[in-house]
Amino acid sequence: MTTPKRRVPVMADVAREAGVSHQTVSRVLNDHPNVRPDTRARVEAAINRLGYRRNLAARALVTKRSRTLGVVSFDTTLYGPASTIYGIEQAARTAGYFVSIVSLKSIDTASVRDAIGYLTEQGVDGVVVVAPQRSAGRALESLPAGMPAVAVEGTHSAGVSVVCIDQAEGARLATRHLLELGHETVWHVTGPQDWMETEGRVEGWRSALEEAGRPVPEPLAGDWSPRAGYEAGKRLASMDGVTAVFAANDQMALGVLRALSEKGVRVPEQMSVVGFDDIPESEFFSPPLTTVRQDFDVVGRHCIEVLLRQIESGPAALERLVVRPSFVVRASTAPVR
């Protein structure tokens, strides 16, 4: 014998269960202010008892909105993009929106255009593009006219609003901290080329050294990976007079710490190390890592606020919201000896 399928409840069932009209149920679902609190509570209780789920497709036909936002990102295995997406998703949910995510293997104009085209076909109300690379910024120029859009770590050159973390200020905080500890200069392990975070962190590191009148060493190229930090750490350990290094992310700082340990260089007694990101594991490194903290929750909230302003009010002047990072001092830095 087969069990008959239970009929999916509809709005009329909710109205009957709550003893109100169909229109009253609709007002409650759309958060209309002209509903008495006791009536709203009765309707919400009926919705919960019946397990009613609103028909979003039908609602979209009426409101011309899907209550869904699109997100395009690159390499969500990296801490920064993954944390940014999480912050965006939580903020969107708080605002009553769902999120549809397209994660790309590579950032180029064609792939970003295809991703945005796909999301547009799904009827999203707006798009957030996590655009940490110059190539992604150029791809934003192909956004459909009138599409509400925000770029994370992008530039205004693409004609979209931007929400970003002050990467240069974060690097200045790291570099000044090391200089204040008495280190003559600070070496730097960079992120990969074409990333705007890389450019901002190099800029902040260099400007802090120049403002202090200190030598600016040739930066060591990295790619965000612990392996890149490890190779840079081996080079630094073999050089004379190196007492402080700023790695452009915590994963590379981890590689630096491993290389220094293998070479017998004590941290922080002989060399101080600073990272960037404050990944959850950084306080459990050996020693716990001094680093720059990025507030991805604030980034996500600002993205959704800017996007909703465009959705609700139409095209507006471009916005650029900059989130200031903070600095976390742990045991991987100490005064020079």
The radius of gyration over CA amounts to 25 Å
Largest sheet: 6 strands, parallel
Strand content: 15-25%
Going by helix content, strand content and strand pairing, the class is: alpha/beta
Large-scale geometry = elongated
Number of helices: 12
Number of strands: 11
Strand order of the largest sheet: 2-1-3-4-5-10
* Poorly predicted parts: 56-63
What's the pLDDT, averaged over the residues? 88
Distance between the termini: 82 Å
Give the ordered list of helices and strands: HHHHEHEHEHEEHEHHEHEEHEE
Question: Residue share in helices?
Answer: 40-55%
Topology readout:
Elements: H1 11-18, H2 22-29, H3 37-50, H4 56-63, E1 68-74, H5 79-94, E2 98-104, H6 109-121, E3 126-130, H7 134-139, E4 149-152, E5 161-165, H8 167-180, E6 187-189, H9 196-211, H10 226-237, E7 244-247, H11 250-262, E8 272-277, E9 290-293, H12 296-313, E10 320-323, E11 326-328
Parallel strand pairs: 1-2, 1-3, 3-4, 4-5, 5-10, 6-7, 7-8, 8-9
Antiparallel strand pairs: 9-11
Helix pairs in contact: 1-2, 1-3, 5-12, 8-9, 10-11
Give a description of the structure:
This protein has 337 residues and is α/β, with parallel strands linked by helices. The protein contains twelve helices and eleven strands. The strands form two sheets. Strands 2-1-3-4-5-10 form a six-stranded parallel beta sheet, sandwiched between helices. It has a five-stranded mixed beta sheet with strand order 6-7-8-9-11, sandwiched between helices. Strand 3, helix 7 and strand 4 (149-152) form a beta-alpha-beta unit. Helix 1 crosses helix 2 (22-29), helix 5 crosses helix 12 (296-313) and helix 10 packs across helix 11.
